[in-house]
Amino acid sequence: MTQRLAALLEEIKRTHASSAALAAFCPFADDLIDIPLAPRNLPCAEYMYQNAAFRDAEHPLARAFYNAGPDAHWRETYRNTDIGTDFMDRFGCYCAVGEGGAWKSAKMASYVVTMPPKLHYPWHHHPAEEMYLVLAGEATFLRDGEAAEQLGVGDSSFHASNQPHAMTTGDAPVMAYVVWRNNLGIKPVLTPDHMLRDAQ
Ligand SMILES: [Fe+2]
User: How far is the CA of 94 from the centre of ligand 1 (A)?
Assistant: First the structure.
């Protein structure tokens, strides 16, 4: 494991312990196994590196995800969907714990996601329960059946199993730590409009 990944792991553990919302949702896994990682860079990683707000973020986990970026296997979560290359190039994601991550666990998966200003992450859903913790910047979180909410650093957003959710950035970028529990093996899918209770 590289020093940058080791530093990332320490900050992830600290964050699971220090964020009350995250500690209640998912204590950090006690069954972690190290996985050798082949780094993979993607255009979306450049959008993270270009945002000084992430490099200089106050939250130590934001800086740790930024620093470990070159060692990460960046993901194309929505490859082979009709989400479009513009979104794919600007929506950044890499796995910490789980498939494609530096560690695996039977109990949880976790990721970092980054979005530059003025990007909309369309409605999607998955069977895993999910919590977002905002590490840098801010975004409007949309959850089907609930009021939209503007969230900033330290705020969290819970998404129930298969509850459609979406996210939009305004003038600021956003970086969030994303944790899954239960049904870890099933990928997110885009939500068709007819499945939304409050289509927007
Ligand atoms: Fe999600």
Answer: 14
